[in-house]
Specification:
Two copies of one chain form a homodimer.
Chain A (H helix, E strand, L loop, with lengths): L4 H8 L3 H9 L6 H13 L6 H8 L4 E6 L6 H20 L3 E6 L6 H8 L5 E5 L5 H9 L4 E4 L11 E4 L1 H14 L5 E5 L5 H16 L7 E3 L2 H12 L7 E4 L2 H13 L9 E5 L13 E5 L1 H18 L7 E3 L1 E4 L10
Parallel strand pairs in A: 1-2, 1-3, 3-4, 4-5, 5-11, 6-7, 6-8, 8-9, 9-10
Antiparallel strand pairs in A: 10-12
Chain A binds a DNA duplex (30 and 30 nucleotides) through helix 2 and helix 4.
DNA sequence: ATAGGCAATGCAAACGTTTGCATTGCCAAA
DNA sequence: TTTGGCAATGCAAACGTTTGCATTGCCTAT
């Protein structure tokens, strides 16, 4: 049926082991036989069976990628697919395949299955999955894995990749200042998440460095926004720009501002984290702190593969730079 | 190291084949030994090695999923992830794993690799991938595969899943009529694609059925839209609503209309294909023809697995219903 | 001329399963 | 009492590779 190494061997009149050695370049073989073997391989359209291979050498050349199916947030999903593509891409370039699995918080059996039965060589998983049981499971063995997103609790035995939220936040402030805004406000969703706290720190640091008096940090809610903007309109506060921690906040802010006939970017500037594809179609087109999710995936995959292949014991984590994409919503100055 | 079937056998004092039979329930085993074996399996935390298994029984219980990495369109990507999740979900429920690979139009080596070396049992691939070489490759053998999206050329030997564009288009018309609009126009991107032609047909059929005089079908371009809307404003045409073939068209139309201070939905109604997550945050919130991409993935996976398992020779294709989500942009009547 | 070394290859076991066939009892039917 | 059948299990080959060890020549240094 399918042609095996034995068929090649028989056709050439040589031992299977010789064919194997030619394929893997794992011993010196005479030019003559090598060529004959290669030719027959081509003629019979031979392809090595990776199963048999894996069975003997104990490595499947496969990595597991768990995706957070529970996450109905279309926003993060849209981003995530770029990471998936990136991961597959670097994996493939090193000869690895990618096995995906959904993860439900309730049980981790599918992840275990990847490791224990499918024998993947390593795993990439989103930080949302790193709940109690799974953390123990992963860190207790020295099984290679990389987390997408910085874990809440600081642990030295977890290797992760995340965007540099602190730097992104600093850049957002810088962008506003450069455009002539003087009193930015940071709107966050939940101060307790790690990425929000980083953004807060970046915001505070950069404002201090730029020696400006900020309008502070506020937790977003629709009512609060209405109130704040009313105050701005009545000149009761001198806030002149918002940094929004995600696109939905930005849309709502924009809506509230426009409802009051206040001009963006002339009177108020708006910049937001997350470059959701439609952001550029908004009116005005939204300036954003862009996260290169492709790069994140790429980095995660590289980290994982290095850990798998090199058996590096030192666990590394990495921050990926955020980048400002300046559109209309912050263009106060006409340069 | 890892515990194998032999370890179990030795511990119980029985032959490995007996253990295997217990695991697979493939022969009658005395209650007594069966229980002893199951217990030892639990004690030693045994997990079958799927590689060895696959090697002998010739099936990997793995399906390949190819994703179109070349597709930089964030819109379709955002949708696609839901299909991925669905596919993995049904696969898992039947004991299958999912191996993903990117596909570049230039060569199909990575897809071949899945089949020839990784030995997947079947493949799901987006219609964009079905170019010449690959069509031949897939249809020449009787290897199970399902295409996401209806192929351009009608072939009876290709099994595919797509959304019912014709029905979606009819529903869009119906929605507009019900809201009191009288003369809808369909805006498409490229008449030659199969899905556009279906939408055109659905549009024409429903308009005929409803006995209304349509404003026809137009290929979208920014200039043409400006012109058309100018004409509407000058009462030179009685078009009172647009069905847009994708979200970007809809945004541009909305923008052009609003720039002329024409009211949506009062004067002009707008409905669009593709429920891009932000559509509901637009002003006014966009009514859409929603495609259940999760359902599409689910259907594709079910089709594929049935073909793999049942070895059904009859190739089936399926249409998934589209559904209208009525938001603000078509609410002319206040019911 | 002889020993030692190395290049080129063969042999067979191993990876962890499954499965067809053979074997062993035991029980019921004749 | 013999025979036939069936339930319960063992034996060994097979799946397609890789790899340590053994073997065969041949070449070179002594």
């Amino acid at each position: 049926m399918t042609v095996t190494i034995k068929d090649i061997a028989k056709a050439v009149g040589v031992n299977p082991s010789t064919v194997s050695r030619v394929i893997n370049g794992t011993a010196s073989i005479s030019e003559e036989t090598k060529e004959k073997i290669l030719q027959v391989m081509k003629e019979l359209d031979y392809h090595p069976n990776s199963l048999a291979r894996s069975l003997v050498n104990g490595s499947t050349f496969t990595i597991g990628l768990v995706i957070d199916a529970g996450n109905k947030d279309a926003f993060s999903n849209a981003f995530f697919i770029q990471s998936v593509i990136a991961i597959e891409s670097v994996a493939q370039s090193k000869g690895y395949s990618v096995l995906i699995t959904n993860h439900s918080l309730s049980d981790s059996s599918n992840i275990k299955n990847l490791v224990q039965e499918r024998k993947v060589d390593g795993i990439i998983l989103p930080v949302q999955c790193m709940t109690g049981e799974l953390i123990d499971l992963m860190t207790s063995s020295d099984f290679p894995f990389v987390v997408m997103g910085e874990p809440q609790e600081k642990r030295s035995d977890i290797s992760w990749v995340d965007v540099d939220n602190e730097q992104g936040s600093r850049q957002a402030v810088e962008c506003l200042i450069k455009s002539g805004y003087k009193s930015p406000m940071l709107l966050v969703e939940n101060r307790n998440t790690i990425f929000e706290s980083k953004r807060i720190k970046g915001f505070e640091d950069e404002c201090k460095a730029q020696k400006i008096k900020t309008s502070g940090i506020h937790t977003f809610s629709e009512e609060k926004i209405e109130m704040l903007i009313d105050e701005i309109q009545k000149k009761e506060r001198d806030t002149d720009s918002f940094i929004c921690s995600n696109n939905v906040i930005a849309f709502k802010v924009l809506k509230a501002i426009k409802a009051r006939k206040i001009s963006v970017p002339k009177q108020i500037g708006v910049i937001t984290f997350d470059n959701y594809p439609l952001a550029e179609y908004m009116e005005p087109a939204l300036s954003v702190v862009d996260v290169d999710t492709y790069k994140m995936g790429e980095t995660a995959a590289e980290l994982l593969l290095r850990s798998i292949r090199g058996k590096e014991k030192k666990i590394k984590s990495r921050l990926v730079d955020a980048a400002i994409i300046e559109r209309e919503s912050t263009k106060r100055k006409t340069k």
